[in-house]
Each structure stands twice: as C-alpha cells, then as structure tokens.
Amino acid sequence: MNKRQSFLPYGQQWIEEDDIAAVIETLKSPYLTTGPKIAQFEQAVADYAGAAYAVAFANGTAALHGACYAAGIAEGDEVITTPITFAASANCARYFGASIVFADIDEKTYNIDPDQLIRSISPKTKAIVPVDFTGQPCDIDTIMDIAKRYGLVVIQDGAHSLGAEYKGKRVGTQADMTMFSFHPVKPVTTAEGGVIVTDNPEYYEKLKLFRTHGIATTTYAKEQGDWYYEMVDLGFNYRMTDLQAALGISQMGKLQQFIERRRELAALYTKLLRNVRGVTPPYQAPEALSGWHLYSVQLNEQELGMSRKQIFDQMRSANIGVHVHYIPVYWFPYYQRLGYEKGLCPVAEKWYEGALTLPLYPKMTDQDVHEVVAVLKNIIG
Ligand SMILES: *Cc1c(COP(=O)(O)O)cnc(C)c1O
Questions:
Q1: Does 161 reside within a domain?
Q2: Which domain holds residue 341?
Q3: Would residue 186 show up in a list of annotated catalytic residues for this protein?
Q4: What percentage of residues in the chain have a pLDDT greater than 70?
Q5: From the alpha carbon of 181, which atom of ligand 1 is closest?
Q6: Residue 362's closest CA among 187, 132, 183, 165?
Q7: NCBIfam families under this entry (predicted)?
Q8: Which band of pLDDT confidence, cut at 50, 70 and 90, is reported for residue 332?
Q9: pTM for this predicted structure
Q10: Residue 279 pLDDT exceeds 90
Q11: Is the pLDDT of residue 1 over 80?
C-alpha cells in the first residue's frame, strides 16, 4: 500500500518568521511577564470576538478554572457538560468540588443536546459548560434560554471555535463567559495559553483576581502606602507571559486566513468522501459556520466489515496521523471512581465507537487531503 514519506499529524501550528521576530523583540524588552503585551493580546482577542473584556491565562484549562471561580461554583453544586470533550471541560468544576452531570449529545451535531440538558437540571445545578466540538458552535441561543429560565451561568468552552460563527455572529459574546485555547493544535497559538471573553464587568474583575493569587489593590491598601497590597481571596499564579502574548498578537493577525484555509480543506474532504460507503462526513447545522478545528468522520464498522481500530492502525502505518476525539470523559478511571457508569450517554458512546479524526490544519496542501482520502479508500477497499 502507498505510504506517505513524512508523517502527517492531525493538527499542527503554523509559525512564520514574523511570529518569531515578535517573540524575540519581547525577549529584548524590559517585560517578560506582566508587561504591555498581555493587554494588547487581550484587546486583540476581545475585538475579534466582539466582547467587552478578555482575560489571558497560562492555558485554556486555567482559564476555565478561572471562569468557574467567577461563576461562584462551589462544593454541592452541579455543573452540566458534554461527555464528548477534552477532560478539562469537566475538570474545571471538579477543582471546586462540584459534581459533574454529563448530558448526552445530539446525534447529528455531536454537541450537547438541549433536551438532554434540560433533563439534567436539578435544584443543585449552577452552571453549564457547553462545548463547540470540532469548531462547530453548539446551539447557544437555546442553551442561553434554558440557562435564563433556571438561573444558570453558561461557560462556553470555545477551545475549538475561535473564528467560528453561530447565526452569522462570531463565537464569544453569546454566553456569560467563553473560553478560547491557544494550544498549538488550536486555531492560533501562544504555545500554551487561554483566554476568557465576557461582557460582564464583575466576572472580568474576578477573573483578573483569580489569575494573580487573589491579590487586589483595594482602597484600604492604597491608604497604607504604595508598597501595600492585599490578598483578598485564594487565587493562583495563572499568568500568561509577555513572550506568549507577543506570539499571540502576531498569530491573531493570521487567524481569519487560517480559518478560511481550514474551511477549504474541510470542503475538499467532504467532496471526496461524499460517496464513500461506510464513511459519513461531519454534519453541519444550518445556523453554524464551523472553524473546523477537527475533521471527524463516522465509520460504520458493520458496513465496512472492519473495525475502527483496524482502519486507525493501517492509516497510522501509512504515516497518516489519524486520531480519535474524544473518549467519553466519564469512562476515565478518575470519573469511574466517582461512580459514573458506562451506558450513561448512549448517543455519545455509539458515536465514539465509530469516530475517526482525519488530519486538518491550515498548512496542509490539497494534495495532502487527496492522499489521506486515497489511503483511506484503499484500506476500506
Ligand atoms: C484544548 C482544550 C481545552 C484545554 O485547553 P488547554 O489550553 O490545552 O488547557 C479545553 N477544552 C477543550 C474542548 C479543548 O480541546
């Protein structure tokens, strides 16, 4: 069988000379952290998303942790999320001792199903963490309506969806708070990094407090003298460095171009896979314009007469970096020990069994896409 000469990963950053120059310039400046690049980067993200405020964190998980703090999540609360996500979407509320309730996914979009969400609400529910899985926005209008009705806070996990649109509007202003991740495989990168955008000034203040040890310059502190400050709550050191922010500013300038390229490549995959028996390209909801963080197909093992694992292994042997996103979060030993059982979310579990992520990132060529599809077709016969 034809094998690629070099390994094609499922996702990868795109760093150019001007990105490198921006980081070097900051290395030579007086500020390596807590300097002017942070505010510039935050402004760039807030402007792009159309939000009033943005707060940068050391990574997306820390940003979600901060959002849970701002939302006042505590032990005894319940937080609802989807099982088809990276563990951080659930872990962030566990850090405060909250219980996670997993609501099953919609069988077409693979995002949280609003009907299942309503069924998961109890008097203890405090917040919802919906995820824009693969970059396709969740049904945020419906989710916000439900949240208003029950008095819940919505923290949208937009780790995949910076640059995606919902009903013609970019993700980032519909929820109470939205998280974007800047990990290298995400739409643009700061190596490690995360941002929360919000229109709420109270959340904004709390996010900043949590990021820096819970230290604030209060009126009382100001009266004491210039050196004085107060630690008013228990926070963390979750700061992003200026080196990362400088890279982020440079990368934000390329985001739209990267997203457009992802859309082209995804459209090419869909065109080439349209009539391939046993392989279902990802469904796109009419109100959603995906940012295409991931291109994940469904394999019908019965129709193909092969297991997902066989196909996965043969693709990997052909140097194609296929992946699987995601293992249902409550299947992990940590969550199993908390008492979650397999079978909890049948749609998610069935979806997981057939899922296969094909490589997709802006630097890929059309030729790469043709090769991936050719190898896949060859394997499945
Ligand atoms: C990447 C990711 C995160 C966490 O982001 P980090 O920056 O890696 O901490 C959270 N949720 C989802 C869905 C992700 O893909």
A1: yes
A2: 255-380
A3: yes
A4: 99
A5: 7
A6: 187
A7: PseC
A8: very high
A9: 0.97
A10: yes
A11: no
Burial 58-78 (b: 16+ CB within 10 A, else e): bbbbbbbbbbbbbbebeeebb
Closest CA to 357 of 303, 292, 302: 292
Q: Is the pLDDT of residue 81 over 90?
A: yes
**Whole-angstrom distance, CA of residue 281 vs CA of residue 269:** 8
Catalytically annotated residue among 186, 222, 309, 342: 186
Same domain, 241 and 356: no
Rounded distance between C-alpha atoms, residue 299 and residue 352, angstroms: 10
Instruction: Give the separation between CA 229 and CA 58, rounded to whole angstroms.
Output: 23
Ligand 1 cavity residues, CB under 6 Å: 59-61, 85-86, 88-89, 131, 157, 159-160, 181, 183, 194
pLDDT single digits (tens) 38-58: 999 999 999 999 999 999 999
Q: Which pLDDT band holds residue 217 (cuts at 50, 70, 90)? A: confident
For the chain, helix, strand, coil in percent to 5 are: 40, 15, 40
Residue owning the nearest CA to atom 5 of ligand 1: 60
Quote the DSSP letter at residue 1. Answer: -
- How far, in Å, is the centroid of ligand 1 from the Cα of 61? 6
